[in-house]
Amino acid sequence: MSKTFFAAIVAAAFAAVVSGECANACNGHGRCTSYDMCICNRNWQAADCSERVCMFGLAHVDTPKGDLDGSGDLSSADKLIIENNYVYPYGTTEQFPQMEDSDLVPLENSAHYYMECSNKGRCDRTTGECACYDGYDGVACQRASCPGYPNSCSGHGVCKTIKQLASADHGNVYELWDRDATMGCECDSGYYGPDCSLRTCKVGVDPLYLDDASTVKFSIFDFATLTTKTTAPLFNDGQSDEETGYWTIRYYDNYGEDWVTEPIIAGASCTQVLNALYGLPNDVVPASSLYCTRTYVLNGIENTFSESTQTFDDQSPIGKPYQIIYKMALWEAKTGNDQGEISPLTPAMIYTGSNDTSTTAISGYIYRVKFFGNPGKFQEPEIDVHLDGKRPSLISPNSKVITKVWTDGQQGEDNDYFADHCNGVTTTIGRTSGDAGTTSFLTGFTTAEKNLLKACLGDSDFDTTNNIDVYNWDKGTKLYPHMIKLVRTVTTYTDGGYFAVVWYDTAETLDNTQNEGTFKLLNPFYPPDNFLTDNYDIYTTKGTLALTTDKSEATFGFASKYVYMTNTSYDVNGGINDDVLFDGDISCEVGNNNAYKLDFLNHCLNKTDVFTLLNWETPNFNPPRVNLYTAERLYTGNYQYSVSDRFSNSASNGDAEMHYMTHVITTDLSTNWGHSVGGAAENQEGTQFHVYKFFPSTDSTYEYVAECSNRGICDTDSGICDCFSGYTNDDCSVQSSLAV
After folding, report:
1. Domain boundaries in the chain?
2. What average pLDDT does the chain have?
């Protein structure tokens, strides 16, 4: 045996011994290299692989890495500096990796890189578990704890991520880096605060709000159960041929809690509907606090459904006939008919599931219910016709069942945005017919009253430098009309009044004064009981009603909570307008790919903003009574319909098609009107509805429905009102000389 061969054997044996010792030194959690170094298994670290690696998560706060290689400079984000590191097994860089946003645009400054225990905890190297700092929890300390953790939300709420909370808020979307990291409490009804530990008190009407003219705007909701069937019986439950179908009302109180009535039989009387609401537990709807009118329609194809002899079941507060006038445009904002032409004036349009939305007869029942015992703004009730799982309990054989809930200018409110009473001015409503249809206007006042009204209206456009006359006022324009509230001079405190949009037309004088000009109403207001001779007090505001843009058209179905914004600008001869670059989105959210839209917007719309829908060019197209809506969500949906399909026009622009009916506004109240986009480009200008944003003024706003009626302090521990001296009742809404 040669010395060389012997030396090789000895070296191999020695290496084997050393390797065995190294392997033992790795504690069974790694492998030994020929250089006597341990390469640790995943989730183990240290020179001998004896320490555990803890869970990683997106860092709540970043730790600067610094100059890791001592070169005196920070290298770029694409250059690996450290490799085969325990914490960074795939290497790391001195700068954080350069990321991209959803539009694939590189982000120069990125953050929240994955870190052990999310940089909000200490790693226990023995167990591999994170010991989170106060206020953080999770296996990687990846969550910000809800208040009171581990007994979160005081037992009166549910701990949820900010993504879940956004989704619960009318389906809003939150997708930022902390969507699963930032937490909050969703409180049970009647509780609030960051930890849901505070109790709410009962709300009521401030007794000092009421005077000789001020009235309370209580909610009036219309509940419609309709069908395309034209012969009785109209409904059943699928078990018989008689009219025995059932439906329920889901009512929401001031705190957002929902309550479901007992089943209501199809075709029920007003008394049966009211008894179902009175039957809700906990006196949610106080006894004898509702008015109801029922309208029955059979094979109706007219614009109006009216029963002039109907009253509030002999409980009418004014004892006058009550007429329901609606344009029943029950069109669900789907595609148009084969000709692509749907006039806003077409009556009784119902989407029946096909592309044909031509005039269809409808039948059914409409219940108008006034909740004068439940003050304030509360969520719109709903009709449920699925009382047996997925099987509908209200069926109309071989026909389509349609249920709708809406309010027609009589919405409940917590805040009176029109609290400035124009003292000394009363008006009546005038109406005249012409080529442009019926025009409504204010009349019945003297020249002095007319001039006083100008001073009451004041500025309308955020710019007092262009005000005119000694009255320091604006006449009102398409961009900035005036908005007022009309309240009957002789009425009850539960009247509430009606919103109206007004502007001053100097071209003609229709009222009974000698002054040039007429205060015209943009909405063709008509008293619901036909009494045009009634006098109205006028309430104004320092708030501003402003057109968002005339480049985006609003499309909405009758009694729908969805308003679609679109720009259909194109030329029927094949040319393309410059405006077609704007896709119709009026939301305030601006990114890298839509910043250009600000060039087309006078004012944008955000969640919680108040707005209404109006047609300026043809006022007769507007609903007689105006609703004020609150934007609960603004989002962009998927492409569904094409402009060329809608208008049967192959010359429409492809980019515009991709945005047709994709931008959506979700409202708090259902619309009291219906409108599809114009039929052809040449007549669109006169048929377009636009969004007008209302900017309330704190100087003209009175919160008159509030906890303890503004006349007491809420004990947040017990939820009981501590009334001021001189006020009593559980909501402090009653003045009493004995309450001292």
Report:
1. 1-48, 53-136, 145-199, 217-413, 420-540, 547-693, 702-735
2. 81
